[in-house]
UniProtKB/TrEMBL annotation:
It comes from Cryptosporidium meleagridis. It holds the Pfam family Ras. InterPro entries: P-loop_NTPase, Rab_GTPases_membrane_traffic, Small_GTP-bd, Small_GTPase. Keywords: GTP-binding, Lipoprotein, Membrane, Nucleotide-binding, Prenylation. This is Ras family protein. It is a lipid-anchor. The lineage of its organism: Eukaryota, Sar, Alveolata, Apicomplexa, Conoidasida.
Amino acid sequence: MSSKDEHYDYLYKKSKSTIGVEFATKSIITEGKVIKAQIWDTAGQERYRAITSAYYRGAVGALLVYDISKRSSFENVERWLKELRDHADPNIVVLLVGNKSDLRNLRTVTQEEACAFSEREGMACMEASALNSSNVDEAFHRILSEIYTLRSERQLTANQHDLNKTTLPLGTQGVRVDPIRIDLNSKGSKKRSCC
């Protein structure tokens, strides 16, 4: 290997691509709670597209990952995002991740371009490197924290909604109950006799 670029190329060629779908779990702590996520790597390769769309159902978050050194992978993000939105929950949290940030000198997609796209699409963006692990944990922590926050807010809203609505069985009336007051300063009560 004569140059740094060839070294990176060699390392990436030696790494294994996802075949079909792979599964892992990841746990993080946010707001003092352990959040355990099931992670499905659905392989961005066209030949696996038919089997991967089934994994979108029930997903609450997605990392859309593209290669900053391959323009074609960034150009495919729009199609993957559409497919994700067609098959997943409409409230899914999406984070756009530019992978291979360690290959800055081979970059074909600027961070500004990627973040402008993600902003238009209503998602966050960041860059990471799977090779040297920079920002990988941060990407997972960021999306899982956002999912946790949104889910917590929705649960609070739902609970408040349930408290605000009162339902009584048909044909019944509500009963008003006045509060009971206890006077602790009273020196005693007058005794009444019945006779």
